[in-house]
From TrEMBL:
Protein name, UniProt field: CRISPR-associated helicase Cas3
HD Cas3-type domain location: 15-226
Species classification: Bacteria, Pseudomonadati, Pseudomonadota, Gammaproteobacteria, Oceanospirillales
SUPFAM superfamilies xrefs: P-loop containing nucleoside triphosphate hydrolases (SSF52540)
Keywords: Antiviral defense, ATP-binding, Helicase, Hydrolase, Metal-binding, Nuclease, Nucleotide-binding
Family affiliation: In the central section; belongs to the CRISPR-associated helicase Cas3 family.
Encoding gene per record: cas3
Length: 896
């Protein structure tokens, strides 16, 4: 057979076989897909049910198409990229030049030949008489069907304006097109493809396929990558029949590859049997929210839950109860916890601990991955990255081989988290699935059979909310379920989230009537159920509010509390304000070592150290002698993730939801007798009719952060009226007084700022809508979306951030990392700065350039990081206590 004359993978050097023949590589990938689509797998059953096929027929059909994914490599232009030695291959044709990627060439070959192959019986299409309309519907369906397979390198492809004869040639011995045809014919015969003829003629079926095509593309890509691993699929250039290779090589090797990669048989979920089963029989009284999660009925269709309750009401555990019940009911195979920040992701990862194992039988071994940490899916799965394997020959500039792509992708645990049975990470990792990032379909494949749990759903800006709505719509279309957690969700946002979910199911949005708090909202198809709940007495409390107008007042209050032996937290809105306040307090504190500064401009090594110190002094387990006289001056990082509490708290004025969150760290835990909890808020003096500079005159940094000053005025107004933050009974009133329909209550002087911000929100929503993929249209090429030079992101920020690698010199004067000697020193030495801040840092002196390049070669994560040798910078500096500072006069001598 002439298809033996084509290589599919090649490597430099002469050790062993120099290439892997194209038909064998095609069968390797198909064999991985064959195991991943085993009929008993829940994903296979879901796809089969949605596409009205038996699991067995669906498996053979899709695996047949998967085996065609590299048809473009039959092009003589591709074959000219390498000349492996020791094997007879099709001779190069000099006039052919490789100018178009092989994935596009595969689509071109299929587009030009499939009808002829069908007529000639190559595709094993049964003899069925079709009228003209049915022929056209079949053509449209098959055109859509192949897109996920030829677009296996991370994005859809198109073949318009390409001509077959320019890329596929022939000589007196062999024809590229004929060789491809022979392979397709034998492959179709081997796999015994079962064409879903009736379904291909149905417009409804095609619509269902298009909605699932992103998941199918992810399956095809994962199959290609795992099927390209030389550790399991040895190069073979000896000729044998496809049937022999399939049975003796491809299928058993694929089974081994999947087992070692962690893709074993599906896990067996356990029915939920009460909280005691999670905590080794210890009696645990469920909260009202948790009790409702235990008892509510779960229909057979996709479910959306929105859990609104105060901090400490057990929302995470309630979500886990629902997740376990959904797993046991067959709604999902795993779950993904999405959180707003890395810090909250870290906290959730620690909080879950081994709890996720209680969701499955003891013999199950669910993988548990932190989305931004150094964890591996499991040791076997990371072997392809941690242990070097020979690299395949890359195909050309910007076109890496599947092995290289797989290694790079799997080396990033943030991306692997969506393939793990249980993943914890930032919301960004999930939102990237709806944006035109290369390989985004792998993310959607990972999410397809998971319960998506989104925590602190209120914390996302308008841009992210729009992307989240698109993700929820797609997740509903895929048959997934989602659980959203929040303590401070505006009514309009709850309505928008429900509408997005029902839009994914092609249903009109249901009307929400519930105004109570706490509240559980359950959406099952068109049915919306809202359940008013009680709160535990322990988490129902009021925090008084007092107002400060001068920083000196705040300093005096801090020192009075220190003299009384209390511990104090002052939450500031900017890093610079926090540094200034910290300096002032430390100068007056009788024991300066009991002062801490905690903000975001520390290298990760120091940030982790300070986090541990904060927990030791202010954490739930902290003792009274450790807490006495402690002061932490911090930014919003304090409220985001750490389970801490202070006896006294001061906060700069911020929107109401943030003040509620900060107040949750004030006397959070039961200790001994303490003064009544009162949140002191540093704010401008109250004005009924403020002007546009009202905030800026008193707190210029705050206005730079919260540009819609009407939110700050509305917050101050409602807190002055209520004189306290009483949760949960006044939660809805507090939130709606700031985020509800209150435009007519905003003073004239603040209207411009509000209008500007609302206009920017509309722009942000439009930008998110434009950037997001039209997932309902299916996995198809869209030249307006898939642009290599297009810069997109999951967050719309005023200014991009830059990762900076903090450097130092060792005793010998050699350039080294700040965290040299630590595990993951490359990551622990980095800090994140705004682009304008990073530009202020002095460039690395030329004399150190060679040493920096050596560090980059050793630590791959430094390739796209800005180096900074702080001790050579006269205008900015770094200190273990203060972090990164830009005021040269205030630089401290770094203590090593």
């Amino acid at each position: 057979m002439t298809y033996w004359l084509y290589w599919g993978k090649a490597k430099p050097g002469s050790q062993g076989a120099s290439c892997h023949l194209l038909p064998y590589h095609s069968l390797d990938v198909a064999a991985v897909g064959w195991h991943l689509l085993a009929p008993e797998r829940p994903l296979t059953q879901l796809l089969a049910a949605r596409l009205e096929m038996s699991p067995e027929a669906l498996r053979s059909f899709f695996v047949f198409l998967l085996g065609l994914h590299d048809l473009g490599k039959f092009s003589r232009t591709f074959q000219g990229l390498a000349r492996p030695e020791g094997v007879e291959l099709a001779a190069p044709i000099e006039r052919y030049e490789y100018t178009v990627r092989h994935d596009r060439l595969g689509l071109l070959l299929w587009r030009e030949c499939w009808l002829d192959w069908l007529d000639e019986g190559v595709l094993h299409w049964p003899e069925v008489a079709l009228d003209l309309g049915e022929r056209q519907r079949r053509r449209n369906a098959i055109k859509a069907l192949v897109n996920p397979f030829f677009g296996h390198h991370g994005q859809p492809v198109e073949a318009d304006q390409l001509r077959l004869e320019v890329f596929f040639g022939s000589d007196e011995h062999v024809s590229d097109v004929e060789s491809a045809k022979l392979f397709v014919a034998e492959w179709a015969d081997l796999i015994d493809v079962d064409w879903p003829i009736e379904q291909l003629l149905s417009e409804e079926w095609l619509t269902s396929f298009l909605s699932l095509s992103w998941t199918i593309s992810g399956w095809a890509t994962l199959s290609d990558w795992l099927g390209s691993n030389q550790e399991h699929f040895d190069y073979c250039q000896d000729r044998m029949s496809l049937a022999e290779y399939w049975e003796c090589c491809a299928v058993p090797r694929a089974e081994t590859a999947l087992r070692k990669a962690g893709f074993t048989q599906p896990l067996t979920p356990l029915p939920y049997s009460g909280l005691e089963a999670w905590f080794d029989g210890r009696e645990v009284v469920p909260t009202p929210l948790q009790k409702e999660a235990e008892l509510l009925s779960i229909p057979s269709e996709p479910q959306l839950f929105i859990l609104e309750d105060v901090t400490g009401a057990g929302k995470t555990e309630a979500a886990c109860i629902l997740a376990q019940r959904l797993l046991a009911a067959g709604h999902a195979e795993g779950l993904y916890f999405a959180l707003p920040t890395m810090a909250t992701s870290n906290a959730m990862y620690e909080r879950l601990g081994s709890l996720h194992r209680r969701f499955y039988t003891p013999d199950s071994n669910p993988s548990f991955v932190l989305a931004h940490g150094a964890s591996r899916l499991n040791e076997s799965f990371s072997a392809a990255i941690d242990n070097s394997q020979p690299l395949d020959l890359d195909y050309g500039p910007g076109e890496a081989s599947a092995t290289a792509q797989c290694n790079r992708w799997l080396a990033d645990s943030r991306k692997k988290a969506l393939l793990a049975e249980v993943g914890v990470g930032t919301i960004d990792q999930a939102l990237m699935g709806v944006l035109p990032f290369r390989h985004q379909s792998l993310r959607l494949f990972g999410l397809a059979r998971k319960v998506l749990i989104v925590d602190e759903v209120h914390a996302y800006d308008h841009y992210m909310q729009t992307l989240l709505s698109r993700l929820l719509s797609h997740h509903a279309r895929q048959g997934g379920s989602a659980i959203l957690l929040t303590a401070t969700l505006p009514q309009a946002m709850r309505q928008a989230l429900v509408a997005a979910w029902q839009e994914g199911l092609n249903l009109p949005p249901g009307s929400l009537e519930g105004r109570d708090f706490p509240l559980l909202t359950q959406v099952s198809g068109a049915a919306v159920r809202e359940v008013s709940l009680d709160s535990r007495p322990e988490v129902s409390r009021g925090v008084g509010v007092e107002w400060l107008t001068e920083e000196e007042q705040a300093l005096d209050i801090v020192m009075e509390a220190v003299e009384d032996g209390e511990c104090v937290a002052w939450v500031r809105n900017t890093v610079d304000d926090a540094i200034r306040a910290y300096e002032a307090i430390r100068e007056r504190h009788p024991q300066p070592e009991r002062c801490l500064l905690f903000h975001s401009r520390f290298a990760m090594l120091d940030r982790q150290r300070i986090e541990s110190d904060v927990l030791c002094r202010f954490g739930k387990a902290s003792k009274s002698d450790a807490r006495e006289g402690q002061v932490v001056v911090t930014t919003q990082v304090f409220q985001e993730s750490l389970d801490c509490d202070a006896d006294l708290m001061i906060s700069d004025l911020a929107p109401i939801d943030l003040l509620i969150q900060r107040a949750g760290r004030l006397q959070r835990h039961q200790r001994g007798p303490r003064r009544l909890p009162v949140l002191r808020v540093l704010a401008p003096a109250w004005e009924e009719e403020p002007d546009a500079q009202w905030v800026k005159r008193a707190l210029p940094g705050t206005q730079a952060v919260y540009r819609d000053t009407s939110l700050l005025w509305l917050t101050q107004r409602v807190l002055r009226q209520l004189e306290a933050i009483r949760m949960p009974e006044e939660a809805r009133e507090l939130i709606e007084a700031v985020y509800g329909v209150v435009i007519d209550q905003v003073p004239d002087g603040l209207h411009e700022a509000r209008i500007v911000q609302r206009g920017q929100q509309q722009i942000a929503g439009s930008q998110a809508f434009y950037s997001a993929l039209e997932l309902e249209a299916g996995y198809v090429w869209d030249r307006h979306k898939w642009q290599e030079e297009q810069e997109i992101g999951t967050r719309l920020i005023d200014e991009p951030t830059v990762n900076v690698a903090l450097l130092k010199r060792d005793a010998m004067g050699t350039l080294t990392l700040w965290a040299e000697g630590e595990r993951h020193a490359d990551m622990l030495s980095q800090l994140k700065l705004r682009q304008s801040q990073a530009k202020k840092l002095v460039e690395l002196p030329a004399s150190y350039q060679t040493q920096w390049e050596a560090l980059q070669e050793h630590y791959k994560a430094l390739r796209f990081v800005q180096p900074w040798l702080a001790e050579e910078d006269g205008t900015a500096g770094y200190d273990r206590t203060f972090g990164c500072q830009f005021n040269a006069a205030g630089l401290k001598e770094e203590a090593r």
